[in-house]
Amino acid sequence: MKISIITATYNSAATVRDTLLSVSGQHHTDVEHIVVDGASTDSTLAIVGDFPHVARLISEKDKGIYDAMNKGIAAATGEVIGILNSDDVYIDGSVLSEVAAAFADPAVMTVYADLQYVDAANLQRVKRSWRSGPFKRKNFYYGWMPPHPTFFVRRAVYEQAGLFNLTLRSAADYELMLRVLLKWKMPAYYIPRFIVKMRAGGMSNASLVNRLRANKEDRLAWKMNQLKPFFFTLYMKPFRKITQFFIR
Q1: Which GO-annotated molecular functions does the record name (predicted)?
Q2: Cα–Cα distance, 22 to 91 (Å, whole number)
Q3: Using DSSP, how many helices (H) and how many strands (E) does the chain show?
Q4: Backbone Cα Rg of the chain
């Protein structure tokens, strides 16, 4: 089973080597790694060029990270597609083998797992842990979502449900998963272990202003899909992150 991994980069020289190493070190042999670069001006492209496993490199100006992801998905030829950001890494070499094993069941359309937030300078230092738990569609109404870097889907899912919505700046991943899992009711499979390390410091949590904008976009994500959350749903979503600091 071919798995396509999409990595969006822009001036990512400080971190992208770790990402590339984590993909090239996977035991699963049928991997298509596509790097979509936003016309970097640092040494990102030179670093990517050092990794012969990269199947395709697209470098041109884009409309942001979700536009880059959409370009990568459009270029992908794998049956299964995953997104790995340029500052994230797979936790070990068996991750994509486990993902492929889950998708061996033709009824499985999406797969997700657990994620660790780690120190930007020390990937061994865990700052908080995101344990997703088994899939229950109703959990979306209680602020739940799977960690997007652990989220894999069959290419047919994108073909049916669509790509990332570029009108959203920080919640396009949330909106996509809401659309795929809640609106379209695609079956999901949970791998109960950590498979991705993500450097702490995401866009939506960088400041109070960004958090408020993200909450507004989360609300819009429900409206876009003609879904109605509970009155507390969107307050529960950031609250759930607090509990991650107490999980190891």
Answers
A1: transferase activity
A2: 8
A3: 8, 9
A4: 17
Domain housing 201 = 3-246
What is the count of structural domains for the chain?
Answer: 1
CA distances from 92 to 3, 126, 171, 232 (A): 16, 15, 28, 37
CATH of residue 76's domain is 3.90.550.10
In contact, 153 and 83? CB cutoff 8 Å: no
Q: Indicate if the pLDDT at residue 79 is higher than 90.
A: yes
For helices 208-224 and 233-243, the axis angle rounded to 10 degrees is 130
Residue range 7-38, pLDDT digits in tens: 999 999 999 999 999 999 999 999 999 999 99
Query: Three-state SS across 115-137?
Result: EEEECCCCCCCEEEEECCCCCCH
Query: Nearest CA to 47 among 84, 77, 74, 86?
Result: 86
- As a whole number of angstroms, the distance between CA 44 and CA 54 comes to 13
- Give the pLDDT confidence of 166-213 residue by residue, as tens digits: 999 889 999 999 999 999 999 999 999 999 999 987 544 444 456 567
110 forms bridges with which residues in the sheet?
153, 188
Between CA 246 and CA 97 the distance in angstroms is 29
**Among candidate residues 147, 6, 149, 2, the one with its CA nearest the CA of residue 73:** 6
In angstroms, the Cα distances linking 35 to 5, 83, 114, 240, 246 are 8, 10, 24, 32, 34
